[in-house]
Amino acid sequence: MGIWDFEIWDFPSVLSIVIPVYNETRRLAASMNRLSAALRALDHPHEVLLVVEASPDDSLALARDIAARHACWQAIDNGPQRGKGHAVRSGIRRARGDIVCYMDADLSTDPAAVPHMLALFARHPDTGIIIGDRRHPQSRVLAAQPRARVRLSRLFNLCVRSFFPCIRTNDTQCGFKAFRAAAAARIFAAQRIDGFAFDVEVLVLAARLGCELRAMPVDWTDAPHSTVRALRHGSRMFLDLLRLRFSPPVTLNP
C-alpha cells in the first residue's frame, strides 16, 4: 500500500489549481505536461490558473501557449513582479472552484497529491485547509534541498514556532496547500504579504478564523534551477515575519 492508496469518495464538484509563475521558461512546459497528464487521469472538473508576474524571460508567452491548448486553463498577466504571495493571492481571488489549491510551477510536490487531497476533503467535511507536510512520517523527500537552504529553513521554522504558537504544523513552507472556497475567500481577503513568507501569514489567519487544518504526506523533490535565492529571499522572509508578528492584526471578515 502506497501513501496515495485511497478509497473512492465523492469529490467536490470543481477544483481550481493556482500556479504562480516567474522566470520559468526552462521547465514550465515539462512540468505543466506532467500536471495535465495527472488531471486527465483524475478525470475531474477543474481549472488551472497560471499567474505570471513580469519575468526577464518569456514566461508569459509560454504560459499563454500552454493555456491555449487546454479549454479549462488560463494564463493571467499579473503585472510587475511583487512576489509569490502576490501571485497566489491574485489567482485564488479569481478562482471559481469549490476547492482551491496552489502548487509550485516546478511541481516539487508530486501532482499525485491532488486526488489524495480531494479524498481527504470529502472524508472530513469540517476540514477547511489541507497542507502538504514534508515532515509527515509518510512523506518521501526524493531530492533534498542544498545545505544552505536546509539551514535557513531550520532557523526560519524556529522563528515561526517562537513567534506564532497558534501554528500547529511542522512545515509551513511546502508549496502545496488547498482550501475550501469559503475558507480561501476569508483568508485571502485579509492576506497581505507578497513574498515567500506569505505561507506563514495564511496559516496565522487560518488559526485566527478557527479553520480546521489537516496535514497530508507528499512526495517532494527539490527542483534544480530554483528561483529562490537563500540570502536575498531569506532576508526578506525574516523581515516579513517580524512585521507579521509585531504589526496590528488585520480585521477579519466574519
From TrEMBL:
Pfam families found in the cross-reference section: Glycos_transf_2 (PF00535)
Species lineage: Bacteria, Pseudomonadati, Verrucomicrobiota, Opitutia, Opitutales
Name of the protein described by the UniProt record: Glycosyltransferase 2-like domain-containing protein
Record-annotated Glycosyltransferase 2-like domain positions: 16-149
Organism field: Termitidicoccus mucosus
A GO biological-process term: protein N-linked glycosylation
Record PANTHER family: DOLICHYL-PHOSPHATE BETA-GLUCOSYLTRANSFERASE (PTHR10859:SF91), GLYCOSYL TRANSFERASE (PTHR10859)
